[in-house]
Amino acid sequence: MSLLLGVVADDYTGASDLANALTRNGLSTIQTIGVPADLDLPEVDAIVVALKSRSIEPAAAVEKSVDAASWMRGRGAEHILFKICSTFDSTDQGNIGPVTDALAALTGESVALVNPSFPENKRTVYQGHLFVGDRPLNESPLKDHPLNPMHDADLVRVLGRQSRRPVGLIDLQTVAAGKDSIERRRAVLASQGVGTAIIDAITEAELEIIGRVAVGTRLSVGASGIGIGLARAYVADGRAKGTKSAASTGIGGPAVCLAGSCSRATLAQIEEAKAVMPVLPLDVEDVLSLGSAVEKAIAWAGERLPSGPVLIASSADADTVGRIQSRHGRERAGHAIEAAMAALAEAMVARGVRRLVIAGGETSGAVVDRLGLKAFLIGPEIAPGVPALFTVGDGPAMGLALKSGNFGGPNFFADALKIIA
Ligand code: ADP
C-alpha cells in the first residue's frame, strides 16, 4: 500500500505540530526536513515535508513546495495538504496564494478547500472570517506581527489578493448540511471558474465533514485542524495502516538534554531537572567572547554521562537575556548560542549519545541542521504537541524530543527521557 497523504509544511514547528496531530489521529507519519535525497523510508500513511517557506520570496516558496509535493506524489500520495499557519500568516504577495495556485496546477485540482481552523487553539472560521479566540484576526495580536501583519480577517479577500483565480466561500450552513451539500457547492463554484474555496469550520465536527470531502480531492490547504479531519476520514474508511507500525523505543545508551529556550516554562523545567540529573549552566558570556565554554561543557558531560543523563542550559531569565542582547546584539547572541548548542550536540553524538532532548524552537532547528538529520518517525506524545521523534534512514538510530518555548509540564526533561528510553 502506498502513501495516502503528503503534506507540504511552510515551517518546521508547524510541520511537527501537524505530524503529531496526524499520528494522534491514527496515521503512521514521517516528518522530513526538506525533500530527503535517496533516503530509504518505511511504509507509512503520511509524510510531512518541513520547509522554511513562509516568509521567503514567493517564487522560491513555489519551487520548494512543488518539489516536495511532486516527490510525495511520486511515492503515491493521493492527496496533498499545504500546511499553513492557523493565523493565515501571509502578505498580499503570498506565499499562501502563489503556492496554492502552483499546487493546484500540479495536482489538477479545480476547487481546493482552504481552512486554517484549529478549534483546540481557538482559531475558527465563520463566513470566511478568521477568528483568534473571540476577536477577528485583524483585531488580534497578529495585526502587529513583525513579518506578516494581518489587517483583514476576511480570508476570501485575503487569499483573493494573492491568487490568480477567484476565491469562493463554502459557509457553515453548507458544511453543517453534510458532505453532499459541500460537494454540490464545490460543483457550482467550479462552474464559476473559482480556484479555491474558503470553507467554514468552528468545531472539530465540521473539520471531520471537511476531511471526508477532502480525501476525495487532490489538494487542500489548512492547519492542524484540517489534518485531523483528513486523518479521521482515512481511518474511518479503513485506508490508514495506522500507528501500529509507528516508532518504537529501545534506543538506549547515554542521553543529553540541551536547553536554549529562555521561556518561563523551560526555566522552571531546568529547576526541576536539577533533582534528577546534573545540570550545567553554559557560560554564555564566554561563548560570545569565543572562549572555551563549549569545550569545558563537553568535558563536563563526558565525565558524567556514564552515570546517567545530563542537562546543559544556556537559558537565562529575561533580565540576563536583555543584558546579553544589549551587549552583543540580539541576532548575533542568538545565533552564536544556537551554534554553540549545535556544536555541543554534535560532540555528544560523536561520543555515542543517541538520545537528545532539546528545549527551544530555534535551538532545535540549529541542532537538527547541524546533525544533518533528514527524517523522523513520529512516536508517542511526551507532552501536548511534543512527540518523541525517531530518526529514519542513514546513520545511527536516534531518539529526540524537540520542544519549543512554553510546551511541556514541569518534569519535561525526565518525562522525555522516560519515553525515549
Ligand atoms: P523558544 O522556543 O523558547 O523561543 P528558541 O530556541 O527558539 O527558544 O529561542 C531562544 C533564543 O534565545 C535562541 O536564539 C537562543 O540562542 C537564545 N538564547 C539562549 N540562551 C540565551 C542567553 N542566555 N542570552 C541570550 N540569548 C539566549
Helix-strand layout with pairing:
Blueprint: E1 5-9, H1 12-24, E2 29-33, E3 46-50, H2 58-74, E4 79-83, H3 96-107, E5 112-115, E6 123-126, E7 129-132, E8 135-136, H4 155-162, E9 167-170, H5 172-176, H6 179-191, E10 196-199, H7 204-214, E11 219-222, H8 224-236, E12 255-259, H9 264-273, E13 279-281, H10 284-288, H11 293-304, E14 310-313, H12 318-328, H13 330-350, E15 355-359, H14 361-371, E16 375-383, E17 386-391, E18 399-403, H15 412-419
Parallel strand pairs: 1-3, 1-4, 2-3, 4-11, 5-10, 5-11, 9-10, 12-14, 12-15, 13-14, 15-18
Antiparallel strand pairs: 2-16, 6-7, 7-8, 16-17, 17-18
Helix pairs in contact: 1-8, 2-3, 7-8, 11-13, 12-13, 13-14
Structure explained in plain terms:
- The protein has 421 residues and is of the alpha/beta class.
- It has two domains: 5-236, Rossmann fold; 255-419, Four-carbon acid sugar kinase, nucleotide binding domain (Molybdenum Cofactor Biosythetic Enzyme, Chain A, 3-Layer(aba) Sandwich), CATH 3.40.980.20.
- It has 15 helices and 18 strands.
- The protein has helices at residues 12-24, 58-74, 96-107, 155-162, 172-176, 179-191, 204-214, 224-236, 264-273, 284-288, 293-304, 318-328, 330-350, 361-371, 412-419; strands at residues 5-9, 29-33, 46-50, 79-83, 112-115, 123-126, 129-132, 135-136, 167-170, 196-199, 219-222, 255-259, 279-281, 310-313, 355-359, 375-383, 386-391, 399-403.
- The protein has a 15-stranded mixed β-sheet, with helices on both faces. The protein has a three-stranded antiparallel β-sheet with strand order 6-7-8, with no helix packed on it.
- Helix 13 (330-350) packs across helix 14.
- The longest helix has 21 residues, at 330-350.
- The two termini are 31 Å apart.
- Bound molecules: adenosine-5'-diphosphate.
- The site of adenosine-5'-diphosphate has 22 residues, from helix 12, helix 13 and helix 14.
